[in-house]
């Protein structure tokens, strides 16, 4: 029973600020919730069936993140955050880039995408396996972008899938200074250096200033 003076966890949760993420990728939502901490509730489009599916027609991470944030923010009140992110491999002319989620074809699995990158990079020695993850976060309200933040993490591609942590291309990406992949490193270590956490740090500052 809820006492008069001690608020329940449920009533406290009602008072916490909420951020809607313009994504149906639960991995991203989980990472962003972990990185923002318990003082905010992160929800996503999987919980709101009326939100439209936004086709990523842009040719840059920035264009796609703005597009997602703007479209979704027309359907809800408050700010919407969108993440567009992906892997760039120098030897592949920065592919898969904005096509990271669908590199092996529409609706394909993370495993199929990862296998395709490894196949294209077969025989390439370590020195020419440079790659990076990039993330662009856009914040929008009422259909208009308010701010954009970018983060990147440099590294190299492994020669095979290693580790089962994280998602997407994590099991083939070794961040600079590590010989383990993001699939092998703990999520805590990934969050200290990832493209997403670097972009999110800037968002946090912006958001704190706005709420003052
Ligand atoms: P988006 O939903 O169009 O931004 O696609 C992002 C895609 O990039 C994901 O489906 C993953 O394949 C890849 N990606 C983005 N961030 C990460 C990450 O942190 N780890 C591994 N793969 C990622």
Structural notes for this entry:
The protein is of the alpha/beta class. The protein has a single domain (2-210), classed as Alpha-Beta Complex (Maf protein), CATH 3.90.950.10. Helix content is 31%, strand content 23%. The protein contains six helices and seven strands; from the N terminus they run H-E-H-E-H-E-E-H-E-E-E-H-H. It has helices spanning 9-15, 26-36, 61-73, 110-120, 187-193, 195-211, and strands at 18-21, 41-44, 80-89, 95-96, 130-141, 144-157, 173-175. Strands 1, 2, 3, 4, 5, 6 and 7 form a seven-stranded mixed β-sheet that branches. Strand 3 (80-89) and strand 4 form a beta hairpin. Helix 2 packs across helix 6 (195-211). The longest helix is centred in the C-terminal third of the chain and has 17 residues, at 195-211. The protein is globular and about 60 Å long. The model has no long low-confidence stretch (mean pLDDT 93). Inosinic acid is lined by residues 25, 56, 84-87, 100-101, 110, 113, 133, 166-170, 194, 196.
Number of E strands: 7
Number of domains: 1
Bound ligand species: inosinic acid
How much helicity do the residues have?
Answer: 25-40%
